[in-house]
Request: fold
Amino acid sequence: MTEFLNVFLKYVLPFIMAYLLSFLMNKFLSKEMLRGKLHLIFLKGIIIAILWVVAALTAMSGIPAFSKTWETAIASSGIAAVVLGLAAQSTLANVFAGIALSASHSRPFDIGDRVMINSYEPGFVENITLRHTVIKTYQNEIIYIPNSIVGAASIINYTQEESFSYPIDISVAYGTDIEKAKEIMADVIASHPKHFGARPNVLCRSCDDSGVTLRALMETADFRDNPTACSDVRIELMKRFNEEGIEIPYNKLVLIKGNE
Reply:
């Protein structure tokens, strides 16, 4: 019984303690509680990794062949650092890039932000671990991007400003009362319940082969509302233009039947 207890205390208990401490950290420092605190999320990951390393070294020190594990680990830390640095360059690059991303006061995003990193599909930042940043797209696809790539990437953050806007383009035929069309477009956008900010400014974007293209920005307080709001505005514009007799030009195919 004494021998069993000794084995349990030396080899099993360190891992149980590491598991319990990790479980408690994950329970009380949940993703919802840490939302928007990227540096604390990354710090939690480092602490959990250290707990498991300490547990492994403690268990190994109980084995006669590794009885001086701690002393050896400390004495050879310099050599180990060089060997690990050469053997795991990409992993260490991801770790240090993650530290830089999470600790910076001017960090480019927080948990929950919608971002586009390089040419990856835009999505919401779900998590940042020691190795990668987790992005969730609108299609519920999970993208794992190494932190070293994120640290050197061009990042577009769609949520740091207080509002989000997207351009709406619509064409009207030549001969249309442009000022009237612009006024209708501004009214439709401004009257939408999700519209945010001042009355939009409608501009002439281009003069094309078949008509004049008008452009205005649809601005919403929440970027999640913007796609639906833009869709509503386009549909309402078609209805209003039809009621006012304003033609939206489109390509027509004319067939000429020759003599049989």
